[in-house]
Amino acid sequence: MSITALIPGRRDQAKHRGKSGLELKRELAAADRKIAALTAGMDQITAERNGLAKKLDAAQIDLAEAREERDEWRGEALAMWDRFGARIAAEANAHRIDVPPMYRDTSDPADQATTPIDVKPLWEAFKVDTVTGVNNPGAVDPARATTT
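and the corresponding structure tokens:
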């Protein structure tokens, strides 16, 4: 028998608290297990993060090298253009092919001439007075619209 059992009213106080000491110890042990599992998971995630950080650093180094090469090649290309650009343009102009419109082969449908597109403002196309159309949009009769 414990000393708390001899104190009057002490047992009643323990009953209304809801959980005994044994239940609290079990919950504490379960919480400790959960904390240990979460800590192990956190260690694994930290290791993965560190590995990814190393890969990212290596990729950034590769990217920096690729950018340096690109800048070098761009500089070389611009230097070549400065050196040979005028010659390339002169050759293109010297060897151009001009075909007068009267001799142009238009047998292919893609090469046939098209008519200009008739572009009108909407109020002219639908024959709408601008004030009436703005103040009363339902006043436009669809039958009056021109269909061309």
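(Above: one complete record from the training split.) The helical segments are 3-6, 10-16, 21-94, 122-125, 130-135.
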